[in-house]
Amino acid sequence: MLKSKSFKITALAVIIFLSVLGVCYYTYLNIYEEELKDFNSKLDVSMYEIVENIENELEKKNEININLAFETNPSLKYFKDIDNMNLIPKVHIADVFTTEKLKIVIKDILKKQGFGKLGYEFCVQDIHHKILIQSDHYLAFEKQAFVIDPYNNLFKNMVFKYDDEEVEDKFYDDLLVFIVKDYRKFVFYKTEKHIILMVLFIIFITIALLVIVRNILMSERLNVIKNDFINNMTHELKTPLATLNIAAVNFVSLKTVAPAERTKMEAYKTIIVGEIKRLTKMVETILKAGKLSKKSLDPKFEILNFEDIIQSQYQEFMIQIQAVNGQIHYTNKAKNLLVFADKSNLEMMVSNLIDNAIKYSKDHVEITIETYNVNQKIVFKIQDKGIGMSRETVHKIFEKYYRAHTGDIHDVKGFGLGMTFVKSIIDLHKGKIKVESALKKGTTIWVELPLAHEADIKKAEIASE
Q: Beta-strand (E) ranges in 147-281?
């Protein structure tokens, strides 16, 4: 039992841990994708600014060349045909930018967009793919970027094209090749704060789960040890109690007792037997408590007439109630009283409910019991006019060892297990229980149990064969 429970608890903890990991992983992927989109957006803006900066410089250089050409050949002002314009030299990036100047332009623009630590290489090529300008490690990195590891490197090719249709824009046929090195690592490092928080969260959840599982398993082991001790102790107590009971019954039959003393001895015997029975009942209650924690009430289901159960307990408590000038009334309105249940458990349930009604009625005992059918179920209703309970107490009466407060005088005996047994027995029989109570007005309890079906009757017949 303990191994099975330990496995379930451990399995649940593992499922929770894996679920947390899954949620964290999914959350991180979303964060990473957002950072990647932001990175690409900012990089596109940076590339646009770089191109715009280069074009502005080329515009300036081109204006200078045109003015110089007009000064050298004034006729160009009046014959702006394509052949004449070809006399003006085309402006290339390399004519305006040195390697260092282009480095500074690119670096400043990237830094402004938050790419100060971004790794990159670049080069400027002419129309024949001849490299005119290049960064320090471009050639060394080009092969790795294009062939060895293209997944982690980003390429941005910016074309500066010679345009035949618009004279004023026909400057150049150059290509700026821009390679971002390990851009995924750059994006990954941008998310490192989120990663640290998630790792700390996972560590916290792991420690919490380990502590919870450890405490639960330790509690279960202690519970098993406690129940074993209770079982051993109660079994040991039952033997001498049985012996004492036999001795007490035969006590007055001793020949040595004088006839005059027999009446007095009979009274003593009655007291002794009564106390032994009470002590035996306490021992059995403690023994049942051990079984209850194991969820093992040892049920033996059979077809029973619920009225027989009520009548047996009704007669048993009648003498006790009459002794305190109390009243107990039983009315049966049910047409069907057959249930598929365990006899000893049902007797214990009815006995506990009647016993509680007596105990908490104080001096005026007036109990009403009623049975009736509702929706293929048998309802057992018991009502008293005792001290009643507060709403807070009603919510706690099914807790193990809980006892309702009756003031400073503890004149109500018991272990706080009666209603726990009742609830467990009702759950065992797939029934329901409802409690209503008001202080100084009394308590009403409804127990609803399913009626026996044909399938239950067949089961009982097979079991009896």
A: 154-160, 174-180
Over residues 347-375, the pLDDT tens digits come to 889 988 998 888 888 778 899 999 999 99
Global model pTM greater than 0.85: no
Contact 329, 415 (CB under 8 A): no
* Cα(273)–Cα(267) distance, integer angstroms: 10
260 and 127 in one domain? no
Backbone angles phi, psi at 397, to 5 degrees: -65, -20
Q: C-alpha angle 329/334/335, rounded to 5°?
A: 140
Number of domains observed in the structure of the chain: 3
42-91 tens-digit pLDDT: 888 888 898 888 888 888 887 777 777 667 666 655 544 444 555 566 77
Structural domain harbouring 78: 2-190
Q: List the structure tokens of 367.
A: 């109990």
Contact 440, 360 (CB under 8 A): no
Q: What is the pLDDT of residue 96?
A: 87
Residues 175, 33 share a domain? yes
Q: Which helix (H) or strand (E) holds 464?
A: helix 454-464
Residue 331 belongs to a domain with what CATH number? 3.30.565.10
Coil, strand, or helix at residue 297? coil
| Residues whose CB is less than 8 angstroms from the CB of residue 385 and which lie 6 or more positions away in sequence, other chains included | 361, 364, 366, 441, 442
What tokens does 131 get?
């490299």
Q: Are residues 126 and 184 in the same domain?
A: yes
Where residue 148 falls (left for φ over 0; alpha for ψ -120 to 50; beta otherwise) is alpha
Q: Does 278 share its domain with 305?
A: no
Distance CA 54, CA 57 (A): 5
Task: Give dist(CA 324, CA 386) in Å, integer.
Answer: 14
